[in-house]
Design goal:
Elements lengths: L25 H13 L6 E2 L3 H8 L3 H13 L3 E4 L2 E3 L5 E3 L3 E4 L2 H33 L3
Helix pairs in contact: 1-2, 1-3, 2-3
Amino acid sequence: MRYSKYSGRGNFFSLPNEVFLLGLSAGELAVYSFLKRCENRKTHQCWPSIKTIGEAVGMSENTVRKYIRQLEERGLITTQSTEVITKRSGRRNGNLLFTLRPIQEVLDQYYDYQLEELELASERQRVAKLLREWESPA
């Protein structure tokens, strides 16, 4: 059975709405979206090459690496190195194995970080006020 492009059953993937709450750059969003497209829905893993990602999203390999690093720092993905055994029993580096973390865990981590930053800013303001009061007694 062949489905039309617009039948609702064709070739598509789901991107969680919550990803737009994280303040991702366009590049981060493009790389994350491609990884989401490639992911195995049961294991939440995929292993496209850096070159494949770059070709799909129109970026150089170095730029893709930069955005992968940023996605890791934000906690959206984890990466693992893999090995390939060649026909001559040699070992070579394989593609990275990407694991996409559940979006709710990422959001919880993001909100915890924002709360910590807010508490730090509040404490800085409190200390600055105390210093001003101490420096200029009434």
